[in-house]
Amino acid sequence: MSAAGGPAAAAADEAVVAAVLAAADAIVDDFGHHRTASYFAGFTPDATFVFHTADRRLESRAEYEELWAQWEREDGFRVHGCRSSDRRVQLLGDTAIFTHSVDSRIELGGSVDDVAERESIVFALRDGRWLAVHEHLSPRAPA
Hints:
Strand order of the largest sheet: 1-5-4-3-2
Order of helices and strands: HHEHEEEE
CATH class: Alpha Beta
CATH topology: Nuclear Transport Factor 2, Chain: A
Number of domains: 1
CATH architecture: Roll
Radius of gyration: 16 Å
């Protein structure tokens, strides 16, 4: 029997961190390639979203999907790329907090710009999958 925090626990934690990172990588990659169906599938239906670009908290995945469609329709919104760095995963049982710096190429109104932000995504283990239940996006100060 291994003591708490021993090699077996460390290996288990490493496997969980790897699974959370894989879920985060899928969200980032789908966002960066503007694959909306796959991107939104990484979030639970009851996920909430706080964006510095929105005037309110979004109370569900469906509400975010509606806003995304509005951005596409009214502003020509399109994602041309996304890169994640300075990544960290904190484990809290069946919940994990993923934080990172995110650099995206975003098109709005026919202009493509680089956007630097910081993001926290809270994941929960649901039916054997790590799914995002909350996302918070903030602007990142220039270095």
